[in-house]
Amino acid sequence: MSTKIVLEFIDAINEADIDKICNLMSDDHLFIDSQGYRVTGKNNMELGWIEYFKLFPDYKIEIEDTFEKSELVCLLGYAVYSGQTDPSFRLIDPPPPEANPVRAMVSGYQ
Fold first, then answer.
1. How far apart are CA 91 and CA 93, in angstroms?
2. What CATH number was assigned to the domain covering residues 3-109?
3. Torsions phi, psi of 4, nearest 5?
């Protein structure tokens, strides 16, 4: 895995480009969220991203620094969104947009 590929993936997320996101995922892509919830597989993640962008259409990831060692790529940054979501979705005491750190681990890039 290279930093270049991971940053392409972040760009695809920031553009809400589902096709580009999926093209960068392997079939056995693994996503683990900050609560430890795991989603495996490109098809499952495609559906997840479609729904996520419906809830948070202006979601962006801002990367401040990167580190690469062998097959490990580490990104430091944060996620932002305006807080304007799908009206059917309600957050309880949402954090301010500037305080949403990205805490997720992914593997399985092509």
1. 6
2. 3.10.450.50
3. -60, -45
Residue 100 contacts residue 53 (beta carbons within 8 Å): no
Domain segments of the chain as ranges: 3-109
Q: Cβ(76)–Cβ(65) under 8 Å?
A: yes
What is the number of residues in the chain? 110
19: amino acid identity, one letter: D
Tokens representing 18 are 């589902």
**Total-model pTM:** 0.72
Residue 33 CA, distance from chain mean position: 9
3 state DSSP class of 94: coil
Q: What are the tens digits of pLDDT across the range 4-59?
A: 999 999 999 999 999 999 999 989 999 887 788 899 999 999 998 998 898 888 89
